[in-house]
Amino acid sequence: MASVDGTGGLSSRVWTVPNVISMMRLALVPVFAVLIMTERDVAAVIVLVVAGASDWFDGVIARRFNQMSKLGQLLDPAADRLYILVTLVGLGSRGFVPWWLVAVIVGRDVLLVSLLPALRRRGLAPLQVHVAGKAGTFALMYSFPLLLLANLGGTLGHLSLVFGWAAALWGIGLYWLSAAIYIRQGLEASRALA
Fold it and tell me: Per-residue pLDDT for 67 more than 90?
């Protein structure tokens, strides 16, 4: 666990290719929100797929070309959380997913955000992203376009519904598993300081 002022070798640069990709992904959040709420599902799916692909792409570029930055560490997860929130609210408001699903996913993020002040008071940086969290986010981001496509009906809609729910439930499990891992990491780091 790094100290709050430790950067772990991260750059302070703002204008890197991965950061620009993340900024563009963030700029598409309101576009996606309008598309999903106005029932332009195919266009919404396209934006969601582009956002998901750019999320993967900016990470590859950051690692391969050593362009990891402090800003990128904030932008990337912020974009992920915003897409998840906007998609869940859109799907919930249109009756595609039950509100309990929205509460379970958003509740996990609220829980982890509520732990940040305690970490900072102890001089600890935010917890490092775990592969379970990345996999859970990926599964959720994969499920959302499928759940939107389920509205089309027919064989494609039926298959999208089945695979979309399978990915969503798998994503929720991984999402909460990662929350347990983050809480354990925070407790261990706090004990190490005692």
Answer: no
